[in-house]
Amino acid sequence: MTKSLDDLNQQLKTEYKKEAEDCLKIYNALDNITEHVWRCDWTCLVKAIRNENYVKVGYEPNEIGKIFLKGLEIDK
After folding, report:
1. What is the pLDDT of residue 76?
2. Could you write out the DSSP letters of every residue in 32-76?
3. Angle, CA of 57, 39 and 20, to the nearest 5°
4. Confidence band (pLDDT; 50, 70, 90) for 2?
5. Overall number of domains in the chain
6. For an engineered disulfide with 65, which of 6, 13, 27, 61 has Cβ 3.0 to 4.6 Å away?
């Protein structure tokens, strides 16, 4: 899953910075919980952002991922 992490770090330099920050919160939480970010867990919480040519330009939390992020905020 380091490719996803690399992609998110690159995404921080784009117009989708906020989405990347949210996904990094999810990524780091999964890493802390399971000591590894498993693709099956990751894909349940995020979705690809695609441009008009249907090329992936980044990630953003999906609806379940947004609920997961709210849970992280409550847990603080």
Report:
1. 66
2. HHHSS--HHHHHHHEEEEE-TT--EEEEEE-HHHHHHHHHHHHH-
3. 35
4. confident
5. 1
6. 61
Instruction: Return the amino acid letter for 5.
Output: L
Tell me the pLDDT band of 1, cut-offs 50, 70 and 90: confident
Residue appearing with tokens 């590894």: 36
Q: Are 4 and 42 in contact (CB under 8 A)?
A: yes
What is the SS3 assignment for 20?
A: helix
> Are 17 and 11 a contacting pair, CB within 8 Å?
yes
DSSP 1: -
The rounded distance, in Å, linking the Cα atoms of 34 and 45 is 15
Domain containing 63 equals 2-75
For the record, the structure tokens of 70 come out as 């709210």
| Residue 36 main-chain phi, psi, to 5 deg | -165, 145
Flag whether pLDDT at 75 surpasses 80: no
